[in-house]
Amino acid sequence: MALLQIAEPGQSSAPHQHKLAAGIDLGTTNSLVASVRSGEAQILTRDDGPVMVPSAVRYGQEQLVEVGQKALDAAVFDAENTILSVKRFMGRGYQEISQQAEALPYKLVDQSGLLAIGTRQGVKNPVEVSAEILKQLHVTAEQALGGELTGVVITVPAYFDDAQRQATKDAARLAGLNVLRLLNEPTAAALAYGLDSKQEGVIAVYDLGGGTFDISILRLQKGVFEVLATGGNSALGGDDLDQTIVGWLLQQTGETEQSSQGLREYKLLARRLKEKLTEHDHVDFVLPLQEGEHRGQLDRATFEQLIQPLVRKTLTACKATVRDAGLTVDDILEIVMVGGSTRVPRVRQAVAELFGKEPLTSINPDQVVALGAAIQANVLVGNKSEQDTLLLDVIPLSLGLETMGGLVEKIIPRNTVIPVAKAQEFTTFKDGQTAMAIHVLQGERELVADNRSLARFELHDIPPMPAGGAHIRVTFQVDADGLLHVTAQEKSSGVSASIEVKPSYGLTDEQIMTMITGSMAHAKEDMHARMLQEQRVEAERVLEAVDAALAADGHLLQDEERSAIDASLLRLRASKDSADVEQIKAAIEAVNISTDQFAALRMDHSIRTALKGHKVNEV
Ligand code: ADP
Ligand code: MG
């Protein structure tokens, strides 16, 4: 699907120069930058330095900021001022993180609801910390490419919500980068393997990184990727594999009490052992003890036993996600392996067993995301026009509005491909209503209370009209980065109000899963709740309308007609709060019947009144 190119007015339409673009994998553990050079995506390094920059930032003495390996090394002795895995904090609330059981060595600060970290250089928020990593990659890229970057593509997990995506964009802006777009990590990996030009079908991307596990199911159709489902575990990764070795080491040495510094040393050793076991059957190690040292050996079989429960957890998540996509493992055409931890032979083997075929591992699993991002960046700056890939992502949870009765009207259903814009018309509930409260919600459930509130705003200056007379068009627009803009406009007057949704709290992937599975588990109960609420709202509307009509034209009625109407209204008032949908429905129906004649009388009367004193051609 080629995009049509249009030149800027007054500018030549001649093919432009090759522009510099880069793809950035801003990882939890490691970050890297890549670019397409001479038609091939390559990782960029500085002075042949290391390919991966550990995602570590240290705020040192005298305004010194260290990024990467130096900072990671400092984490052992300056843990309080060295921030690791900042990606976990992006766009997240203070409450959310500070309540996590995991003991963080930092001074956590509540920065108007958002989480920040108190360092010796003052309070730093996750956006600023990430920006330090991005600045480093920015410099690396410009040095390696020998010029200024036109734009970059930054990858984010497929489940990142608005707040997390917005935080990532903010960090890039702070680092002086022009973000062409954010790209889902699994989509980038599939692109790196060139799967976009291969056979159409369903692709699974298994990403086991340092601290997270993500499984994504993508469908490739007509050169377009669509995310069918995402799942995983935000607290499962290489670090947890390391942790099993730490436990084993402690057993071996018989040591129990460990200072946090001692534990960090154990962790670093565990990680080295694990990585060596990828190539070797066994590794020897020496551990300094309080007194003397411990010499030992860890073999691969023991390691595989230690990590088996964790590997099994990832497989369980894979099965659940494949099911969530409405598929079975046999439907999966290719499996792309992403993340340093997929180097572990046992992991590869387990994935191959689950899917019944060998996964793709030929591209370095910790580079594959950055390489894919580079390919996309190259297309987006316009270096490659003929064979554009148009990448589609989906929104993970439905987006909607609160309507009367605390119900949610879904405007964009979950898994809708983005970018997307959808509009729906709403109207006023009361006569003369001049303002409308717009409450934007995210989630799958029918009732407002069971969904997540994203934003609220108000539309004012609606011209007074009878209830139901105003036409208010509410447009939901989700851009290519997954950010939501909501606009409400009253048709006759053109008054409008809008909001860009930047929720201050992020959702974890578990929360997303819970919200999705919750909606299935509660489907029946929700359906009932919705019908009940709808009938209650309808009852309110009918009562208001009849009361208003009686106040205006009640004099037209005979006594017995009036008392029949009053009786039906009484019955409706009594039953409108009952939990019995049918009872409310019947009471509404009774009011409708009792007021039938009255409606006809009013109609006649109003026509006569309208005509009185007017010439026919004036009407
Ligand atoms: P993230 O996406 O979280 O930034 P990466 O994809 O860079 O993480 O993966 C980092 C993880 O990969 C670490 O836990 C690291 O120990 C692990 N890892 C890297 N190389 C190897 C290897 N050769 N064998 C096993 N694990 C490895
Ligand atoms: Mg990664």
Automatic annotation (TrEMBL):
Chaperone recorded as keyword: yes
Keyword DNA-binding: no
Source taxon at top rank: Bacteria
Any one GO MF annotation of this record: hydrolase activity
Keywords: ATP-binding, Chaperone, Hydrolase, Nucleotide-binding
PROSITE patterns linked to this entry: HSP70_1, HSP70_2, HSP70_3
InterPro entries: ATPase_NBD (IPR043129), Heat_shock_70_CS (IPR018181), HscA_NBD (IPR042039), HSP70_C_sf (IPR029048), HSP70_peptide-bd_sf (IPR029047), Hsp_70_fam (IPR013126), ISC_FeS_clus_asmbl_HscA (IPR010236)
Function, as annotated: Chaperone involved in the maturation of iron-sulfur cluster-containing proteins. Has a low intrinsic ATPase activity which is markedly stimulated by HscB.
Matching PANTHER family: HEAT SHOCK PROTEIN 70KDA
Protein name: Chaperone protein HscA homolog
